[in-house]
Design goal:
With 342 residues, this protein is mostly helical. The chain contains 15 helices and no strands. The relative contact order is 0.18.
Length: 342
């Protein structure tokens, strides 16, 4: 082997090593987030938001680790898409179609209102449009997963995606705890309370936190209502693809078409597999499903670490406050709307 070939080989090996270190680094921060989520107070915030907080703090103290950027980017891009694909197993299409069609219609009303009102209010407040749109989607659909799915379609910056996910995780937790506090004084049956929680709270985890104290029936119907919103993420994504393509065409931009998010096909495929294959045809234990769910959470957390490393505190102060206000007001109104249409 010539000297030039040897140098090239060493360069390739060095690049591969940096890539591996970058990926491992995101999982290390994710692990720190996991540990932080065990601390009282942060246990309500959750692993995802805890890891983002650590990543943002790391960025402000040590700066962005440029030397391992490729590995970090892999986590924030590729692992994120893989996590969304695995997330499809959480969606039981058969249950939604057989038991939740009525809920599905109401879920569509909630999603439409959350997105349109957040965007409208953001314009009135002169809030950052990108972050506000992502928060509207996260509020209306299914939190972090929805933001992560829509972000590449609307070409949101990694920083905006991380800010949106962090806000959704934190505020969703606040609302979930608030639901459990006011539940005893609400004139709702346990089942209606479950429907209300599933139709209005941000993440699956938030729905579980709020509905579990009301009993098994409330939790089951709450998760069904929430799964309807997850199901609607698919048609919503295609609506955004159409809108973005039309916007680009009208503005004569060089990016004439939005790149099709092929990971959504994986999401749909695993939803079908999880609904009609695993269980009905191929036996699978709840323990295995729980393991896959845990893997999904870790992949999503590592991806969010990669995004969180792009966040500047200065930008967070100047760009996130008004979208946070818009999202909070929208969340309150979503809760009221869901209560009315139960």
């Amino acid at each position: 082997m010539s000297v030039q070939q040897t140098q090239q080989q060493n360069k390739n090996d060095n690049t591969a090593l940096k890539w591996v270190v970058g990926v491992v680094f995101t999982f290390f921060i994710a692990f720190l987030g996991y540990l932080l989520a065990k601390v009282p107070g942060f246990d309500h915030v959750g692993q995802l938001a805890s890891a983002i907080i650590i990543a943002v703090i790391y960025r402000q103290i040590f700066g962005y680790p440029e030397i391992i950027r490729n590995g970090i980017t892999f986590s924030s891009k590729k692992l994120l898409r893989f996590a969304i694909i695995l997330y499809g197993l959480k969606l039981n299409i058969d249950v939604v179609f057989h038991d939740g069609l009525g809920l599905l219609a109401r879920d569509a009303v909630i999603i439409t209102f959350a997105i349109l009102f957040t965007v409208w209010l953001a314009k009135r407040l002169k809030a950052d449009s990108s972050i506000s749109l992502l928060l509207g989607v996260g509020t209306g659909v299914c939190g972090a997963a929805a933001i992560a799915a829509i972000a590449p379609i609307v070409k949101a910056k990694d920083e905006d995606t991380a800010i949106g996910v962090g806000i959704i995780a934190l505020m969703g937790t606040v609302f979930a705890i608030g639901y459990t506090i006011i539940r005893p004084i609400l004139p709702l049956s346990d089942v209606d309370y479950g429907i209300w929680s599933g139709m209005s709270l941000h993440e699956l985890a938030h729905v579980a936190i709020a509905a579990d104290p009301a009993g098994k029936d409330a939790l089951a119907i709450a998760l069904l209502a929430k799964l309807g919103r997850v199901f609607l993420l698919v048609p919503l994504s295609f609506i955004f693809i159409y809108l973005m393509n039309r916007k680009n065409k009208n503005s004569n931009t060089s990016n004439a078409k939005v790149e099709f998010p092929y990971f959504l096909l994986g999401f749909i495929a695993l939803s079908i597999v999880g609904s009609y294959v695993l269980g009905p045809i191929i036996p699978i234990s709840n323990q295995t499903l729980d393991t896959i769910s845990t893997i999904t959470t870790w992949l999503l957390t590592a991806a969010m670490v990669g995004l969180g490393l792009n966040v500047s505190i200065k930008d967070l102060r100047t760009r996130a406050l008004k979208p946070l206000i818009a999202m909070t007001i929208t969340s309150v109104l979503v809760s009221i709307l869901a209560y009315i249409i139960i």
